[in-house]
Amino acid sequence: MQFSSYQNLRKRLLQRETTCEAVVRGYLERIRDSHDKNIYITVFSDRALNRAKDLDRKLEEGAEPGKLFGLPMAIKDNISIENAPLTCASGILANYTAVYNATAVERLLAEDAIFLGKVNMDEFAMGSSNENSSFGPVPNPYDASRVPGGSSGGSAAAVASDLALVALGSDTGGSVRQPAGFCNVVGLKPTYGRISRYGLVAFGSSFDQIGVLSKNCDDAALVLGVIAGRDAADTTSSHHAVPDYVSEMQALSLRGLKIGIPKEYFPDTLDSGVASAVDKCLDGLRSAGAELKEITLPESDYAIAAYYILTTAEASSNLARFDGARYGYRSKDAEDLSSMYINSRTEGFGSEVKRRIMLGTYVLSAGYYDTYYKKAQQVRRVFLNRYKDALKEVDVIAGPTSPFPPFGIGDKMDDPLEMYLADVFTVPASIAGIPAVSVPAGFDDSGLPVGLQLIGDFFEEGKLLGVGMAVQKALHE
Ligand code: GLN
Fold first, then answer.
1. Is residue 171 lining ligand 1, measured as CB closer than 6 Å?
2. Which of 186, 259, 350, 421 is the most buried (most CB within 10 A)?
3. At what angle do helices 45-60 and 20-32 cross, to 10 degrees?
4. Ligand 1 within 6 A of 77 CB?
């Protein structure tokens, strides 16, 4: 049994044409048969089945089904689920079991979702290819010699391969949108503060957001509506009221909607297959009544530099807690306290994480703080103002999610700077804290997926998903 949307599954569940148990059995069977895909780190076989049976019983007894009744989900392994392993795909957390539920997880459970397991990712969400994982890479569902994108590569591949209907990921600089683009699924990064970060392992706290990966915009809107909203456990979560995203999305009309096309998002170096798929989507939007307007975002070239200074600084501080004393892995080979710290961290962390901790400590050090960290904070403000101004002129900004299609496994591993360029179009929205979504934009000539990114003003997720839905419609007509 495979479903094109949650609505489709829900109808069948509520009309008693199938049961949660049958649905979960189907997914678990497919997950078991997909070992070579390396998507799941932990599979909740018994737990998911028991939950499914409980939900079936509740329905039989006449209880009101929750908004996500029976929705089979995969959760990125940096989001905490009580009594389940939480590895962040890192050796340092290899044997760690989470002791509480993330707020997003709690809210999904309250609306009757079912968790199938925890999925693969780049270690501590640092990467663009899912290759920085202590569990090994995940093959792209459309071409196994290529990467699925990262860091939420497992989440995107799970949805694309029908090993979950919806997945949670996390996005610090593109980790939901870029893998969504590489795997032909929808990936939404909400406004900073829209979803509580309580229970999401911190990487760059002033950037991190939980995001939703799904087959279509309706499912993303539905799940966002459930997990968004103020949470006393995360003081950076917003008080902004949570609208009905599904109705907002459905009410959106493209007539007269202004879509800004930044010329910096279409450089000469843009892959030609990506460019033509994106152009086709934009033509579709124009035919459906939208007005396309060329805009300029001149500081775009500084995005990657500012992002990697700010996030490594935050990461170096956030990851200090993994010291061998409090969580997870402790080196056996230590004579005293400081060698215990050093050896635990040396053995437990992978090389990309160590690179970022070192870079982060460097940019925060007394001699370089002003030159790098402070400067990057100033650049961040410039970005915010520039995007805010642009979004006064246009309703949304559109362009490619990634400058190139999914690349080969191993191709960029020896050149971190090359790898960082994968995020060139996704980091600006993260720097500004505004929402963005990647929607499927069709395929290039070799059959590789292409993503279209839509960026909007603060709290305008409903509008973005509405435009995303119009893109889906235009491509299928
Ligand atoms: N690829 C980016 C990085 O490595 C983004 C990661 C993310 O969004 N978590 O930092």
1. yes
2. 186
3. 160
4. no
* 388 DSSP β-pair partners: none
Q: pTM of this prediction?
A: 0.98
Please determine, for residue 49, whether its predicted confidence score (pLDDT) is greater than 90: yes
Q: Which residue has the tokens 């600084």?
A: 313
Question: What are the structure tokens assigned to 408, written together?
Answer: 């080969």
Q: Which residue has the tokens 């196994």?
A: 144
- Which strands sit side by side in the sheet containing 166-171, from one edge to the other? 40-43, 114-119, 72-76, 166-171, 209-214, 186-189, 436-443, 449-455, 396-400, 258-262, 291-295
Q: Is the CB of 128 under 6 A from ligand 1?
A: yes
What is the tens place of the pLDDT at every residue in 334-374? Answer: 999 999 999 999 999 999 999 999 999 999 999 999 999 99
Phi-psi sector, 62: left (phi>0), alpha (psi -120 to 50), beta: left
Cα(426) to ligand 1 centroid in Å equals 9
pLDDT in tens, 246-289: 999 999 999 999 999 999 999 999 999 999 999 999 999 999 99
SS (H, E, C) 405-453: CCCECCCCCCCHHHHHHHHCCCHHHHHHCCCEEEEEEEECCCCCEEEEE
Measured over the CA atoms of residue 386, residue 389, residue 391 and residue 394, the dihedral's sign is negative
**Nearest alpha-carbon partner for 474 in 325, 283, 321, 338:** 283
Whether ligand 1 lies within 6 angstroms of the CB of 126 is answered as: yes
The answer to whether residues 166 and 213 touch, using CB atoms and an 8 Å cutoff, is yes
Residue 337, H or E segment = helix 337-348
Burial label, 298 (beta-carbon count in 10 A; 0-12, 13-18, 19+): exposed
Six token digits for residue 165: 């209907």
How far does the centroid of ligand 1 lie from the alpha carbon of residue 125, in Å?
A: 6
Residues 90, 128, 134, 151: which is the catalytic one?
151
